[in-house]
Sequence to fold (162 residues):
Amino acid sequence: MHRWIVGVCMGVISLVLVVGCGGGDSSTAADGGDSTTITKVEFTKQADAVCASGKDARTAIFADYSKDVKAASNGKADPSLERKLANEMIDESLIPSMTAQLEEMEELGSPAADEAKVADMTKALSLGIEDLEKDGVQALVGGTNLGAFQKAAQAYGLNCPL
Fold:
């Protein structure tokens, strides 16, 4: 059972690595806060950078989870302990990481022609975070909103692989 939960969590790493690939309505100019439109190329480049940063953060989160499971279980499979540690990891590390990335992406703005697409991606991501808050590990297993976000991000051309 330990391998199953670790496997699910590691599989989900890939899914949640895309967390930062959403967006908001406008970007802010550095010269005084005027709202300007970001191009799709700029948005994609910046969103991909946020995704890469999130990937690194979540890789570390899941590595810590694996270490915690090994230390707490003394090498013996204990599904209830694994689930407890997974839910703690989700609440204490994964949700804050995903929320921070969502906020970073919203700060980028969105290309004027793609506001609806970016808003749909952001909405799916936000709903995925809500699913994690409500359902914990179960949301990782069934993650339909996170899956919808992944599909939308890939269709948009973002480099946020599973």
